[in-house]
Amino acid sequence: MGGGKIVAGIIAPHPPHLIYAENPPQNEPKSEGGWEQLRWGYERMRESLEEVDYDVIVILSPHWQTYVGTHFLGVENFKSLSVDPVFPNLFRFNYDMQVDIELAKAIHDQAEADGMAVKMMENPDFRVDYGTIVSCHLTRPDWDKPIVSISSNRSRHYYSVEVMQEMMMQLGESTRKAIEASGKRVLLIASNSLSHRHFTTESAIPEDMSKEHITSHAMHLWDMRILDLMREGKTQQVVDEMPEFIEQAISENDGGSLTWMFSALEMPTYSPLMHGYGTIIGTGNVIMEWQHEKKGGI
Amino acid sequence: MSRIIKSLVVPAHPHPYLCPDANQGWANIRAGFDEARRQIEESDADLLIIYSTLWPSIIGHQIISDPNPEWIFVDHDFHDLGSIPYSLNIDAQFAKDWDAANKARGLQSRCVNYHGFPIDGGSVVALKLLNPDNRIPAVICSSNVYANRAETTVLAKACTDAVEASGKKAIAVVIMSMSNRMFTQPVSPDEDAIHSLKDDEWNQKILEFLGEGRLEDLAQLSRTIQGQIRVQKVVSFKPMWWLSAINGQHNNFNGQVLAYEALHGAGGAVVVLDPSEGGIGDKEFDEDDVENYLGDRNVLDAVTEDSIVIEEQSLAEFDSLVLKTLAKEESGPELWQGTEGENLVNTDAAPKPVGPYPHARRIGDLLYLSGVGPRQAQTNSIPGGPIKDENGTPLDYDIEAQTRACIENIKVILEASGSGIDKVLDVTSFLVDMDRDFKGYNKVYSEYFQDVGATRTTLAVRALPTPIAVELKVIASL
Ligand SMILES: [Fe+2]
Q1: Which CATH number fits domain B330-477: 3.40.630.10, 3.30.300.20, 3.30.1330.40, 3.40.920.10?
Q2: Which end of chain A is less enclosed by CB atoms within 10 A, N or C?
Q3: What is the pTM of this model?
């Protein structure tokens, strides 16, 4: 086939608070809003993505954690209830999603050919992780595009951030090759927060925005540093500084999603669109879009 | 006698349930589970308490309170081994009681009762294998990713409070791997082995301790074990803190290691600990005990000046620093250095004064002590808990723990002055709530002063300068 391409890549964070705050019909708990800066950011991104023509979403979420290789959802349709194990009070979401098995298998096969340990997840009773669900819902609330969901290999914990990044650079390349060969137009999602130190208590009303702020000035400085680098197109430098960022800001990028996406986008040097930044129970979150096709990417 | 009549350590992987026959090791673990189940059936336990490292929490501690959670469990990694449908019997009332006890001891805590909540695979497998007919109601608690030893210990003590109040006989079950490094490539069942010789040697050492019933000694090695043979996943080697604390922190058990095998490279063991009379005793009890959790670690509100520096320190140091900071702030009046001078005695091992006075003064053969309360020397925390919070709202506190801490402080000052508790001549005691507290105070007092022959006067007072319920004033001979 050939002719496939990555049309855009986004950072779309997945704290369930953002869905809770929006009260979509799929979610049981009800809120009085909250985290508006980020939700407006998602709104801006959705508007921007309206102009992008894509067939499939490919997402890597740190909440499907695998230790034995990288896994890919391999069942055509998943329909179930997702209850967040950490914030069950906020997130009990009925999902119904289509999987692009063909593309999932193509990326799986390419990664395998490139020497990675991979596995298709073909158990229909499997519950899709809430990171995938939250990021996909907020990016595309109509749920009308098929999805390829890639697990987060915890090589950071088994080895080091450096080893994790090496694997994610490879996985990004394999992803790109498989997409190009597929003939499909693809939106990539890196589903992650930036700094990731949580508050350990929750206010009586979770959406009480008088209580929401970054956990420390140091976390803020780190987030702004990484944000600035990304805005200046210095994605290679972000990858280079990742070990320190993960160490000092306990960043959720340890799950590999951002490194994977940058690699798939061939380390973009153009400026991304900045849609919003805000904190959720103290963690730093950005919504950002690399307009790959528009900026002359593959 | 403890109401925890038996304790178990069981592995976290689904293999022994889903495919025990694929490998002799997995079959051995399954047989270990079966033997543990038989021992549970023979006991008169009416509650299974599960602490699972496979259920991490961030906001405090979570306890399942859905009386009948039902769903299908599929492992994130080993989904190809099959699905595990479950329908569990949870003691919802006990869950609520434990939750309340957590809050009473200062912990953030929540009951979880939502249809479809994903019960973790470790708990599902353990209950399927240990309690297959759901005969004994269970309760399941998460493992907080930020909790340190103090917080984990208090979680166990709160659970003990609830067990005592319920009158139940309980079995405590922790779900965990020993070494937790798995193979990162698929391996066929017949190739399974402990990932490395070092992991295996440490696992053997852990099991040697457990086999000898040295649970508290092992708990005190938790940080070392985490560093030596544990991949830094979300939850660290915390369960021994919890298990030892719920048993009263000792080494007196009959230990049985029923199985130890590899589970995709990790170390899985089934161990049963039965409380016994004798045992090896407290050999290495070298860490402070803790009764109440003195504050959340939303430290960045409390410690602004130092936070940037602190961020670069390890989380453990961070937490202990913050605990101290919070403790100082909560205890009320300003702390003073003890007044120095001839014949005056001060010791760092007793709580700092709240005014310009020494801990003790020698006059001839006599030793006069300033009034001494239960505050702890280094942390300023109050064993048994403060009697009120910063807003003046009354709190439940433990008068026995306060009295004991108070007398221990007195012992320290007496010994620092060259005297001792057996040389006490006269005691004046002050209680802020005579009706509530006299009995508990008197009980602990008699443990120490039964044979001393000191005269004593006990007074009710409206308040003491810090949020404590008891203070003692002592005169002794030298
Ligand atoms: Fe997350």
Answers
A1: 3.30.1330.40
A2: N
A3: 0.75
